[in-house]
Design a protein that fits this description.
single chain; two-stranded antiparallel sheet; 13 helices
C-alpha cells in the first residue's frame, strides 16, 4: 500500500486539464446509477473495427439479436469501440450506423460506455476497403489500432481526429443512453506510440465539449509491476472523472487494482476483465464487483471473428503460435456462434447476480 500512496503524492505534479468533475459530482452521479454490469460488445461478424462500422459490413440485424442475449442475461450496459477511419471516409453513414446501434442498445435496456481510441491490435495503421481475415488458431488476430501509429505520432494529422471526436461527442453529450466516455483504451500500451501528447489533446478536446457524462481511460498495471507506465497512469488518474481499470488476473490481483483505484475517491469501473484460464471468471470476480459496486464489463458476448475462445497465444521468435484445436476452457465470450451458451452453468450464475 505504501507504493500506492507514493503514487498518490506524485500525481499532484501531473497536468490537470480544466473541467474535471469534482469528487462529489462524480460520486453523486454514480450513486444515481444502477450497478453497471455488462460486457465489451464486439459483434460476432466484426474482426476489425472497420467490419463493425463500415457501410459494406454493418449488420444491424445481428447487433439486435446479440444485444437481446445481453438483455436476457440481465446486463444493463455495454462497452462499444468506435472507428475514426470509417467516419473519415463516410461521416454521415458512420453517424447513422452509430445511432442505429445506440437505439438498438436502448431497445434492450443497455446504456453505452463509448470508447474512442486504442493503441491495441496487431495492425498499427488501420485501413478501409477489403479487410484481413482471421488467422486460424490466433486470438484476435486482425484487430486494428485507432487512429493508428502514424496519426498518434504526427500532430499535423490530429485536426481531423479532433473534428471526429467532437462531432460524435456533441451529438450525444446530453444523451442518457450514453453512460460514460472512455476516451482512450489502454493508453499505457505505448510500444511504438508517442501516446502522452495525443492523450492530453484528446482530453482537452473532450473537455471543450463538456459532456454531461463522465470521462475515463483505464489503468492497466499497478505501480509495482515491471511494465508500469507511471507518467500515463498519473495523467489518466488525474484527469478522469471516474476511474477505470483492466484486470485479466484472478481475484487477489483484482482486489489490488480496486485498492489502488480507491485512493482517488471516485467511482470505479472495470472496463475489461474475464480470462477463464487465468482465474478471472464469473464465479469468483462478479460477486466481488457486485458487493463493491464496481462497474463490470467482461470481454466478449458472442464468439466470432475475433476468435476469443483461444487464450493469448505463446510468442516464439516474434510470432504467435496458433492453436490447432478449440480449447476445452474458453478464454473470453459467453455464447457460441449459433448463440447457444458456452456454459449453461455460467449463464445461470450470471442471472443470479444481475436479477
Amino acid at each position: 500500500m505504501k507504493k500506492f500512496l507514493l503514487l498518490l503524492c506524485l500525481t499532484a505534479c501531473s497536468p490537470v486539464i480544466a473541467g474535471r468533475w469534482s469528487e462529489e459530482k462524480a460520486n453523486d452521479w454514480y450513486a444515481s446509477q444502477p450497478w453497471p454490469v455488462g460486457c465489451v460488445f464486439m459483434p460476432s461478424y466484426g474482426g476489425t473495427p472497420v467490419e463493425i462500422w463500415g457501410r459494406d459490413y454493418f449488420k444491424p440485424e445481428v447487433v439486435d439479436a446479440e444485444l437481446a442475449l445481453a438483455e436476457d442475461l440481465g446486463f444493463n450496459t455495454i462497452r462499444l469501440f468506435l472507428c475514426d477511419i470509417v467516419w473519415q471516409e463516410d461521416p454521415k453513414g458512420f453517424m447513422d450506423r452509430l445511432e442505429t446501434t445506440v437505439r438498438l442498445a436502448d431497445k434492450h435496456g443497455l446504456s453505452i460506455l463509448m470508447t474512442f481510441f486504442t493503441n491495441g491490435g496487431t495492425i498499427k495503421n488501420p485501413y478501409t476497403g477489403p479487410q484481413p481475415q482471421p488467422v486460424p488458431g490466433i486470438h484476435n488476430s486482425v484487430w486494428m489500432s485507432s487512429p493508428g501509429m502514424d496519426v498518434v505520432n504526427n500532430p499535423e494529422k490530429w485536426p481531423v481526429i479532433e473534428r471526429y471526436l467532437k462531432q460524435v461527442m456533441k451529438r450525444y453529450r446530453n444523451d442518457p443512453r450514453i453512460l460514460a466516455w472512455c476516451l482512450y483504451n489502454e493508453p499505457a500500451n505505448t510500444k511504438g506510440f508517442e501516446t502522452l501528447p495525443f492523450l492530453e489533446a484528446v482530453y482537452r478536446w473532450a473537455r471543450e465539449v463538456n459532456p454531461s457524462q463522465p470521462l475515463t481511460s483505464p489503468v492497466i498495471t499497478l505501480p509495482d509491476w515491471r511494465s508500469h507506465n507511471q507518467e500515463i497512469t498519473e495523467f489518466v488518474c488525474n484527469n478522469s472523472d471516474i476511474i477505470s481499470f483492466h484486470c485479466y488476473n484472478s481475484l487477489p490481483d483484482t482486489r489490488k487494482f480496486v485498492e489502488y483505484c480507491r485512493q482517488f475517491n471516485r467511482p470505479i469501473l472495470c472496463s475489461e476483465w474475464m480470462a477463464r484460464t487465468r482465474g478471472s471468471d464469473y464465479f469468483s470476480i462478479l460477486p466481488f464487483f457486485k458487493e463493491e459496486k464496481i462497474g463490470s464489463y467482461s470481454y466478449g458476448l458472442v464468439n466470432g471473428k475475433q476468435q476469443c475462445q483461444y487464450p493469448w497465444n505463446t510468442i516464439v521468435d516474434g510470432e504467435p503460435v496458433p492453436f490447432t484445436e478449440e480449447p476445452e476452457v474458453w478464454f473470453h465470450d459467453l455464447f457460441r456462434p449459433n448463440r447457444t451458451p458456452y456454459s449453461e452453468e455460467e449463464i445461470k450464475f450470471i442471472k443470479t447476480m444481475t436479477r
